[in-house]
Amino acid sequence: MTRVRIDPSRKGALLSVRVQPRARREGIVGIHDGALKIALRAPPLEGAANTALLKRLAKTFEVPMKSLSITSGASGRKKRILFGGVSVEELRRWVDALVSEGD
User: Fold this and answer.
1) pTM tops 0.90, yes or no
2) Which helix (H) or strand (E) holds 81?
3) How far apart are CA 54 and CA 66, in angstroms?
4) Which of 32, 49, 61, 87 has the fewest CB atoms nearer than 10 Å to its CB?
5) Which 3 state secondary structure label does DSSP give 13?
6) Count of domains forming the chain
7) pLDDT of residue 102
8) Calpha distance 7→26 (Å, rounded)
């Protein structure tokens, strides 16, 4: 099983994601090249997809949206998301549980 890349940060944990904007259906698609693949209906215009991504992650992982931020890749499909105040181990458990639900 391929694992999603999660790295430590001084402020929390960094999650690698790959975004598919303008998708027909929205949700967690699976794992792509070590990143959590997320389909979004929002277009990649004026930050709409980034906002939709943060909302989706906040809802999926039941964390406040203000604890999430995009640390790299804001204008691309591959992004790094900081989960502020969350340990690598805790985020790993959440992601592993989410990915195993889809199997």
Assistant:
1) yes
2) strand 78-84
3) 9
4) 87
5) strand
6) 1
7) 59
8) 26
Q: Rounded to whole angstroms, how far apart are CA atoms 38 and 4?
A: 12
Helix orientation angle between 88-101 and 48-61, rounded to the nearest 10 degrees: 90
pLDDT at 84: 98
SS3 of the chain: helix, strand, coil, percent, to 5: 30, 35, 35
Q: Which residues of the chain have pLDDT under 50?
A: none
Measure the CA–CA gap between 37 and 18, rounded to whole angstroms: 5
Range of the domain at 61: 6-101
For CA atoms 11, 17, 19, 24, give the dihedral sign.
negative
In a domain, 64, yes or no: yes
- Give the count of beta carbons closer than 10 Å to the beta carbon of residue 64: 9
Residue 1 belongs to a domain? no
Tokens 């990649």 label which residue? 44
Write down the pLDDT at residue 101. Answer: 72
Closest to 17 measured CA to CA, from 89, 98, 90:
98
